[in-house]
Write a structure and sequence with these properties.
Chain A is α/β, with parallel strands linked by helices. Chain A has helices at 4-12, 16-27, 33-40, 60-73, 124-137, 153-158, 174-180, 200-210, 237-253, 256-299, 304-316, and strands spanning 48-53, 78-84, 110-116, 142-147, 163-168, 189-192, 226-228.
Amino acid sequence: MIDVPTLVEQARLGRPRAVARLISLVENASPQLREAMAALAPHTGRAYTVGLTGSPGVGKSTSTSALVSAYRKRGKRVGVLAVDPSSPFSGGALLGDRVRMQEHATDPEVYIRSMATRGHLGGLSWAAPQALRVLDAAGCEVILVETVGVGQSEVEVAAQADTTVVLLAPGMGDGIQAAKAGILEIGDVFVVNKADRDGADATVRELGHMLGLGESRSPGDWRPPIVKTVAARAEGVDELVEALEKHHAWMEEHGELAARRRRRAAEEVEAIAMAALRSRMGDLHGDRRLDSLAERVASGALDPYAAADELVQGVTGA
Amino acid sequence: MIDVPTLVEQARLGRPRAVARLISLVENASPQLREAMAALAPHTGRAYTVGLTGSPGVGKSTSTSALVSAYRKRGKRVGVLAVDPSSPFSGGALLGDRVRMQEHATDPEVYIRSMATRGHLGGLSWAAPQALRVLDAAGCEVILVETVGVGQSEVEVAAQADTTVVLLAPGMGDGIQAAKAGILEIGDVFVVNKADRDGADATVRELGHMLGLGESRSPGDWRPPIVKTVAARAEGVDELVEALEKHHAWMEEHGELAARRRRRAAEEVEAIAMAALRSRMGDLHGDRRLDSLAERVASGALDPYAAADELVQGVTGA
């Protein structure tokens, strides 16, 4: 058994090993997670979180690393959470294999953790917010959430942050892909990375068109800016930080930051409650009971609603 | 109010309007769905369902139409369910706009229905099986489930069928895309359509390699066949029907058909039960209660597990 109070105390003092072990509790959906979250809760709610999403090849990892440098220059303690929803294997400790991140690996004010969430009990709706809570309690002022791997869940992970950055690169037909994937709607700030390449300005124009930036909006509405960067050479990264700070300030001014955090917390609480009810359904009936109901439904002897009633009755006693 | 018993009676007699109206009940998640499913249940469990999936452009719709013709030649009553998980708008009645299907539109032994499921309360896990139950009770011996639009949910829809057909076309780099999307694992039968194009044999080879068809398997294991078709000219379609019949027979022989149907029914029942519990959570607490819990979690005053406990207690009384 892990001594959770001591672990939380050490994480709050900024001990990297303690932070890493707490995130492992999240990753493994440990039974001690509950105790850890209760101990961490009073020390959370301070970090500003930024999600980065975009197709493979746009330079997410390079951009994340450049942002870490930029925030470190501003004296901020930074956390990086790299979530891989497609992998059941944990990166474990530091992302030592990721060249771009190595320059930060020895900086005591930077926490870099990867987390594998495939097969995670509660899915992404739990894993990311709980890991963020650990980094938040550890005193990170800015946390960058980057998704590794591909898939729809990228969008979900990015949506766990206060501000969502959508990255594109010139000449990848990315705009249309992004539109299809529903990514345009979730972007608060857009980045056209590799802006030294041919077609960068065309990508910016195309994107601006798709975002309807030319259209009139209500005063006070947030207009997603498009920032051009060459993250590998740190070009445009200060402008990106500035755009993030503007969005942060706008959200605070309009009550949007609190609203987003409430919404995410509500989703998290509901997901945990539903999982608890699901497991209670399993406790009461065992899989054999569901199997026998399913068999009757498959054969037409019972309709699915009547079968569901039997399951629900077992949980609620009514 | 719709007179459900009369509607079900008429659907069983094969009246297209009654079939259409019952599927509309599913699509709209009507409160009368429960009554309809109870009335339909005793008349289900006979149809053999085939799901068709693949990237846009491989010829799903043309292949579906060619399969309808092939099954009609064999004297079977055929149902087609075209599911569009990305659209909130219903196609309504017949898919008259889809040229390939028009030749079947006047055949009284063919039921063609489109169904929009975006925003459907229970999601795909309910909508598809319930619509299939309607067509099953209407006496369709074979039901083809085709997904319209793109996205991960294609895989889910196809998995609602007894046999899943994965379609590819030459020269689309489809094999790799399919492997990425996790589509290879769900295919019982593979089709390389547009087989008169350059690169068809290469696609078949590449696919065979990825499927590991050369490797030895246990005797009795199903080896997914790869069928070459030119669906627009009905070439290879008889071979495809033969492959489907072989898979059907293999599943019956090995108890796999019953096992798949039980598994799908179990998922459906569980989804309905979970939705009932979720709505009960809402009934007891109202959104304001969840909002207030979320606010306390977001501010760090409460941890998410303790908040979830409060929700669960309201439902179960313990």
